[in-house]
Amino acid sequence: MKTNLPLEPVATVADLQAAVASLESQLAEYKVVRKASAVPAADAPRAVGTVKSQLGEQLKRGVGPVDPADDREACVEFTKQHVAGQHFSIGDLAAQKRDLERALEAARARASTLLAELHAARHQCSVLSQSERTLRQVVESRSWRWTRPLRAAVRLMRGEWGDHEKTALRAALRRLAAWALGQNVNARTTLSERTPAMGSEARAPAFVPDEVPGWTVHLAAAGEGLADVFVWAVIDWDFRMQRPQHLARSLAARGHRVFYISNNFVNASEPGFHLDTLGGSGRLFQVHLNLAGAPAIYFGLPAPEQVRALHASLAALLGWTHTRASISLVQHPYWGHLLRSVPNAQVVYDCMDHHGGFDNNAACVLEAEEAIIRDAELVIVTSSWLEQEIAPKARTTAMIRNAGEYDFFSVTPQEIFRDPLGRAVIGYYGAIAEWFDLDLVRAVARAHPQALVLLVGNDTVGAAAVLADVSNVEFTGEVPYALLPYYLYGFDVTLLPFQIIPLTLATNPVKVYEYLAAGKPVVAVDLPEMVQFEGLVTVADSAGFADAVGNLLARMENPIQVAARRAFAAGQTWDHRAASLDDALALITEPVVSVVVLTYNNLAFTEACLFSLEAYSDYPQLEVIVVDNASSDGSPEWLRGWAQEGSARGQRRRVILNEENLGFSAGNNVGLAAATGEVLVLLNN
What we know:
Layout: H1 9-37, H2 44-55, H3 57-63, H4 72-84, H5 90-139, H6 142-146, H7 148-157, H8 163-180, H9 191-194, E1 201-203, E2 216-218, E3 228-232, H10 243-253, E4 258-261, E5 273-277, E6 284-289, H11 304-321, E7 326-330, E8 345-351, H12 363-375, E9 378-381, H13 384-390, E10 397-399, H14 406-409, E11 425-429, H15 438-447, E12 452-456, H16 463-466, E13 473-477, H17 484-488, E14 493-496, H18 502-505, H19 510-517, E15 522-524, E16 538-539, H20 545-554, H21 559-570, H22 574-586, E17 593-599, H23 603-615, E18 622-629, H24 635-645, E19 652-658, H25 664-674, E20 679-684
Parallel strand pairs: 3-4, 3-7, 4-6, 7-8, 8-9, 9-10, 11-12, 11-14, 12-13, 14-15, 15-16, 17-18, 17-20, 18-19
Antiparallel strand pairs: 1-2, 5-6
């Protein structure tokens, strides 16, 4: 939009308004003088009074303490002289008055125009801002991502590609042809070439020509010192919103780049992956790896050929992420073969459930879980029951319970569920599965026939049919996560009606945090994890459960109790849990790795070897021991300087200079004897 709006329109308008005020003041003074000069002599006393009152201090200073009744003629004469001293005529005054009035009108018109242009510019800014938000939503949508190849093809057919883009396409096609012949042309890429500049654009997915315009996906740099997180997920991101998604999102908010590996595969035999961008940070993605047959992960482990295919697809993903250091956050044993296949991995097992409590878990899955527990640098558990079960088997454990999305559930929605019959609402939301106590719900409904028992969630056990004879129990089925507050704020009392079985004994229920975030009273069965809610949850056994619900229905809500529930939930968010995970990882003591490098002459090789060791390892507990077998090419002198200089990354350097060439085996033994590490590595220069 073109406009003549000045750089500072408000300041210009203010200046004009000041000029107008000055002009009006001058006009007022001229009118006073004009009146005084046009008075007949007979009316001199009244004229003098008018002049005195309008000229104010100026007239007083000119005439002094004049009494008009004593000397009328003197006063009239003074007035005439005063007017004559102004050196202008009445006609001049009239002309100036007209000029000033025209200038005033023009100034006001200009000010009005400027204000109109200012309002128009502000409106245009508002329109552009809304358009930007709409465009961002479109660009981040799945349909936009899925139609990128079509848009690129249309631009190609229209002849809109430049020479650079055509060259890139030809290069990509050559690489595809080379890949089809079994030639891994990317294998020769050096680590330094694979490392992108901070904040640079990365390209995806791997099975698409990675230089074809339109396929560029923004991959932001991780926060300083933060490893990439590979979440080996137990559920797809678009499944019911639970701990895996919440934790991944909070880790990304802390600055980690998070790659959420979905349990849903792309049914394709060639290596590759499909990418979903989650949010606009460039640090959170869902990844679907290619795997022929797209098997479910819950009923067994991958066969050897499937493991090889998964490794190939993972390699394609790593070719895009350029990861240097990783956290392998695994949530299901199916992924066990891939956990150490990401660079510099710290394996963290997120043990959120008692897998042995699920009926559909095969023996091989449970055995794989045991292996992960033993191997992982850290096992995080969600409940005290799991901690007691896992701690004796794991190297390190940390309690990182579930949490709630407080900012979402603490805000009262604009619309709230109301029972059409005006009844009080006893509510539950979540999965209605094999651990759900239908007999307990029936008892609550029959004890309170005047209330509605509303069950919100996916019914996988036929609960609606079982409770069909209870008229005041209603089911909604699965509802979107975004609608949960609509129902939650319509509940007068919330329930946790689980059976007490090994599966639920290990449970730290997310929904209780969400109930409390809304300030709602909660009645729960007596599970071990209810203790940590600090008395804010009413715990009851089967015999007293319905009565506990009735007591809360009859009780007037205490604002202090409501505030206490909310305050507890505010301190138990997923951001708190992500911070606890980072803190737990920081406390892990890594074993010292001793690398023994035996040298004899060939100083250039030695320099390259030692540079590579330190430049391409961010492992903090690295000890490099160089044993020189009496080199004669200046190696001893160079090695002394190298050891004194110290490592830029804080890794330990040691040099042992043998007085004679001890040979290969004896030279290595000297280095091994001096090593302090738990892990020993032998290298030639």
